[in-house]
Amino acid sequence: MDIFSNPEIIWLIAGILLLLLEFAIPGVLVIFFSFGALVTALLTYLTGMSAWMQFFSFVIFSVLFLFLLRKRFLSLMTGSKDIDPDEEFVGHKGVAENDIPASQIVRVEFRGTQWSAISEISILKGQRFIITGIDGLTLKIKPLIEV
Length: 147
Fold this sequence. Notes:
Blueprint: H1 7-24, H2 30-47, H3 51-78, E1 93-95, E2 106-110, E3 113-119, E4 128-135, E5 138-143
Parallel strand pairs: 3-5
Antiparallel strand pairs: 1-4, 2-3, 4-5
């Protein structure tokens, strides 16, 4: 009997690989898909679910774990009780690579990634800015006045 012909073994291996992948990818996201795969492995072992039910179970449990546990995991990792994943950049600083006109959405680089950003006050090229909020995927920034 080939070990890889058992779907519960395949789900178990997928769950373990996804769990290991979480350590390589920051952001506390992949672990919930790992949990979904592990639950699916257990349910497949116990019930012998069909392939489409296995896939359905994986998707449902992964999304369920993601929505129910992500905020708790983030707060455990950061030590904060009230962390909001959308506000994790607030208070961080960056440097404007180009002039940023007031009230216009522009692209800025922050932590090696390009982001949309908007500022109520113009920011000159080379000037430091601070992130004051986030609206969807757009960073709200303002010039950093250093004393």
